[in-house]
Write a structure and sequence with these properties.
The structure is a single chain. The protein has a single domain, classed as Virus Head Decoration Protein, Chain: A. The protein has no helices and 10 strands. The chain has strands at 10-13, 24-28, 31-34, 44-46, 55-60, 66-70, 81-84, 90-92, 99-104, 114-124. The strands form 2 sheets. It has a 5-stranded antiparallel beta sheet with strand order 1-5-4-2-3, with no helix packed on it. It has a 5-stranded antiparallel beta sheet with strand order 6-10-9-7-8, with no helix packed on it. It is globular and about 35 Å long. The relative contact order is 0.24.
């Protein structure tokens, strides 16, 4: 189900928990773990399910890859800036200081929806 096959995919060691397609991840102690807050800096998005302590495929932020990302809530619209959220999900943001990593290419209707996203360079949302 990965969409990012024509873009760089980085194999990197996963942390102590399994991760699934669409999770937003950050770097911690040389491994990737799911994000926990909108102030986290996204390393990228997981492009396929992976077991704990295994190699996981990640489309890096800034790559321009089009990937599926797991929505944190309903109400994400096409074009919304996305920031990391709890449980490795993506939330729409317009709040100054949040760290956006991409833009939604599809709308979400419920938390947990997998929606298409284009990965841009991670940057702070400005007022």
């Amino acid at each position: 189900m990965s969409l990012a096959t024509e873009y760089p995919i980085i194999p990197i060691t996963n942390g102590a928990a399994a991760v699934t397609l669409g999770k937003v991840v950050k770097i911690s102690s040389g491994t990737v773990i799911v994000t926990t807050a909108v102030t986290d800096t996204a390393f990228g998005v997981v492009t396929e399910d992976a077991d704990a302590d295994a190699s996981v495929s990640v489309a890096p932020a800034g790559s321009g890859a089009i990937v599926y990302v797991e929505a944190a809530a309903s109400g994400i619209a096409i074009g919304d800036a996305l920031a990391p959220a709890a449980s490795g999900r993506a939330a729409k943001t317009t709040t100054s200081g949040h760290k956006s990593f991409g833009h939604a290419l599809e709308a979400s209707t419920a938390a947990g929806d997998l929606i298409k996203c284009v990965l841009g360079a991670t940057h702070r949302v400005m007022p």
